[in-house]
Design goal:
Layout: H1 2-18, H2 27-50, H3 54-64, H4 70-83, H5 87-99, H6 106-118
Helix pairs in contact: 1-2, 2-3, 4-5, 5-6
């Protein structure tokens, strides 16, 4: 079932990518296409995760997510890994990105340092201090 979902997702991704036109005058429609591609990318990532194929999930994300700022792509990927409680992959992808020259935002640096020091992900992504009210 997941394989079928992934196959259909890949078809939709290719259709959306084919309709991208960087020279288009209508920037809003291009924005919608990129948003669709990124949503399909996150869905495909989660399909791979459900099939216990984390490395394929990460590769799929990195190959398909459209964002000109590498730090933003890193943030989205690490947020996904954090939400799935994949500490080892979180650390690995953070370290690989830094080695590749990406400069992570403060909350990613703090989350990384906390995880390295304690051996576990913090309770909240990028949030340090008292537990929020509510």
């Amino acid at each position: 079932m997941l394989e079928m979902a992934l196959e259909e997702n890949s078809k939709l991704l290719q259709l959306e990518k084919a309709s991208l036109n960087p020279k288009a005058k209508d920037k809003y429609s291009q924005y919608d296409i990129v948003t669709n591609i990124n949503n399909l990318t996150e869905f495909g990532f989660l399909c791979y995760v459900k099939m216990f194929e984390m490395d394929n999930a990460i590769t799929f994300f990195q190959q398909n997510y459209i964002e000109s700022d590498k730090e933003i792509s890193l943030y989205i990927l690490l947020r996904l890994l954090f939400s799935l409680n994949h500490k080892e992959h979180f650390l690995r992808e953070y370290e690989a990105a830094v080695k590749d020259g990406v400069k992570p935002r403060d909350e990613l640096v703090k989350t990384y340092k906390f995880t390295k020091e304690t051996g576990q992900l913090p309770e909240y992504f990028g949030w340090f201090g008292k537990k929020p009210a509510g």
